[in-house]
Amino acid sequence: MRNILVLLTCMSFIFSCTTSEKSFVKLSPKKTNVDFQNKLNETHSYNYFTYPYMYLGGGVAVGDINNDGLEDLYFTGNMVSNKLYLNKGNMVFEDITKSAGVAGDSRWFSGITMVDINQDGYLDIYCSVGGKNEPNNNVLYINNKDNTFTEKAKEYGIDDNGYSMQSTFLDYDKDGDLDLYVANYPPTSFTAPVDYYKYMLDNHSDQDSDHLYRNDGGTFTDVTEESGISNFGLSLGVVASDFNNDNYPDLYLSNDFNAPDFLYINNGDGTFSNKIQPVLKQTSFFGMGVDSADFNNDGWNDIFQLDMSASDNYRSKANMSSMNPEVFYQSVALGLHHQYMQNSLQLNQGNLGNKEPAFSNIARWGGVSSTDWSWGGLFADFDNDGWKDLFVTNGIRRDVNNKDFYNEHRDFFNKMENDSNFRNKEEEVKLLNYLEKIPSQKLANYMFQNQKENGFEDKSSAWGLDEKTFSNGVVFSDLDNDGDLDLVINNLEDIASIYENNQATGNYLDFTLTGKDQNLPMGTKIYISQGENLQMQEYNLTRGYMSSVSPRIHFGVGAAKSIDKIRIVWPDNKETIMENVATNQRLNVAYHESAVDVGQNSTIAIASKKFETLTQNDPFLHKENPYDDFEVEILLPHKNSTLGPALAVGDLNGDQREDYVVGGAIGQPAALYLQNSDGTFQYKAISIFDNDKFYEDLGIVILDADNDGDNDLYFASGGNEFNEGSQGYEDRFYENLGNLSFKRNLDAIPNTRISGAEVSVQDYDHDGDLDLFVGGRLTAKQYPNPASSRLLENQSSSTGIKFIDVTKDKLPELKNIGLVTASTWIDYDGDSWEDLVIVGEWMPIRFFKNNQGTFKEDTKQVFKSDQNGWWFSIEKGDFDNDGDQDLVVGNLGTNYKYQASVEKPFSIYLNDFDKNEVKDIVLSYSTGSEEYPVRGRQCSSEQMPAIKKKFKNYDAFASASLKDIYTDQMLDNSLKYEIKSFKSIYLENNDGKFIAKPLPMEAQYSNINAFVVKDFDSDGNLDLVIGGNLYNAEVETPRNDASYGLWLKGDGKGNFKTQRPLVSGLNLSGDVKDIKEINVGKNQHLLSVRNNDYLQQIKIN
Hints:
The chain is mainly beta. Helices cover 12% and strands 36% of the residues. It is built from 23 helices and 75 strands. Strands 21-25-26-28-29 form a 5-stranded antiparallel sheet, with no helix packed on it. The longest helix is centred in the first third of the chain and has 18 residues, at 2-19. The protein is globular. The termini are far apart.
């Protein structure tokens, strides 16, 4: 029987291999002769506890050191010798380490890069050195052209003695030779307070800083101070790349812990300026390796940065650190940036209005935000389809953040650190024995295939790359010269991995470049064009983590047999042009002296821009009042006290020019700006606004309520600072008495105290005056309990203005309808009566048919009832030119920590789970087979202390499902909302019924808080301008900040094409809350208001 089972198993294995051959095949060390193993030798006195950088790993470099056409391999070891392997062909290598003289010594070698430092046509090797023990000087092996090397770092002046992690060569001063940037990681306590990082940024020593060395004709000069890059950063990754397309190399430094990342923009005069803020809106917190490449084929270099965010429930809750709110906000206040524990995929939006690029972190949209404890990421086209994929190395030798381990042994480690009887007695206490109690779990690396407009898809298992290891440095190279990229990985404790790529069916084109005077042409860009398809790659070797990739540039080109045009832009701005080039070959291209001068170039031809941000004199500044929503509602997903300001546009002084009113936060009066005859705006103080400044203005409409020819004002009061029913939630009606005199009319509207935000105007009963829908935004301090909304009928007469609450009789469904954010009046059924559509947070899109002045819900008949979302905005327009009104609806987007689908919904529960007479919030997500809480044991127990009693440790909580934690009975009896999609959508009106389809992918990068519907280019088709972002998330959820606003150009058929901000000129960055169109003289402008920021004015050209 046993033999039969073995036979069946073997047959099954053979069958599976023959029917689903893996794309990558791991080659045996017996086949390759590559047996390098970065093995650690931990002792009681030398281990992670005494040297916490023990598990950072080593790098790998690839390059043809003997110019035989085959690329060779060099590995760095931490506690073992480095090794150099000569490629003999057919994926067989020869270990020549000893004869080559590159084994190294007792130093702790980390990063590595290959470079022809002396421009003799042979690759040299530069190694970065860190480690606990001296010497820490970096090492330079000069190639003697006979497969031997001589160490000459000191002779060249680059034996840097910092704690180096990696280095990169670049010609930053454009003088034709290669300079050197060395990234250092000065030893720093993992428990250092936040203000320590700020102090060290301002008061560091030279050895603490990274270093820049200028090449002065073969010897190097330290120009760290004069170049402007003296810094303090715990640098684990560095990449040199031209981020603003001015053909000067810039630098990105990925830094660990609270040390902020650095983005050094090259000023072109030998100096750099750190522009990490505001160029990047957020970064990773535990910054690891970093790579730069153009992953979306738009001609601009993007950035991928690694962190240590787990994708599975157990590891995220048992091993990963929690974000401390106090520390987070202190870090932001000190200027250390918004740092979040997730990978970052920074999309380069181009230079928006200046010479600095703008980036959007779209890692969540891309599906690459969480890959566990990851080290290196590399962009490359592994399947030759013309789109760069993404490979990530993964795994930490021990789960050193395991929360249960430290809780169990906290007293011991306190004694080791603070008790003189224990200090420096590692041997006596047998410290290694404690270390071995930390869990250790190997992890699979990740291979993400580029899915173009659908982000990236995990193909690790399908492509044969799911072996579990502790992997660090990685490179790609076509080791066997067969036209596709293979992988080489430096593993901790295991033999290095070599994966042969057998899958690429697409065509390719490779380049070997020789620069001026035989220099490696760092920074050279190659553009290849095939029809409308563009690809760009930049010549840069130091990429990923501690590693140096192939000097050959590889393009996958899909099915293309030839390339229409190749444009090579050299570092001195000269270029080489080739046309109609056959694919499936390697081109050897040398620098051409007669090439034309390019100058400052851009790969995108930019016409005159449709939108232009104007400089204002004394613009309105919204000043958000401080309030901590999370003190009362610990598990809130986001603040509800920062939803303003509101904005309204209209003529308030009767001069036929449009003015505007902006709402204030608590303590800030609303502001009225009058339009002057020259098109400028002037602030006008209104005394009643100042009297009412302790309301929060979240909804404002301008209307002529009494038909007397002048416009009045309705203000909806909102926020979360006051208790439910407080006077602070009174709405206000300001009657215009003429001559800019306003009176608060207390009798004009009902005194209903609901925290609101939305007000919309319509003569719904056709009686000749304007009525109001007033949306309830929330039940204060009881999120997500539904709020009630109201229908106010205008019954004004000669005796005065009067709005009557007719909700109970005309639209009773408004009672406890939900957390309303927006509404629109639309005659969707063509009966000439405006119907009402309402959206909100956790709500479906709800349709109410107007039956000649009374309403009946029509949602199931015209759409569907389960389309819940975090809907923030809605507008109407005939986008398909068929004569009826369609809708666009703004949702949370798909670039947020919260993800949802039909198979994996996202939910919220509200109940008194611990029976202490306080309602508790529980957010949950689904894996398809099981439901889990979003928040971990620490956060959850702060709201519900009983959780710590029920789950004694983090392992128990991490192993539990939502039902295990809260019980079926309590969950079933809870208020529950469920969302199956966070996509913003277009709703096409098809004979009174609506069909949904998503807005373009770029519109999903953030939430949409506002739409402006207009034919901006006068082509007869309605377009959209959108704006949004959500800055008020709790700190473990990265804020939505990827949007710079978008112009979505309509085609008159219900489709929209994205006009990038770089092309359109539209730049609506920040926490945009509303956008309104305003007529300024004979021109049209846009006004945009942002929370805690200045109002923007944009001219439409």
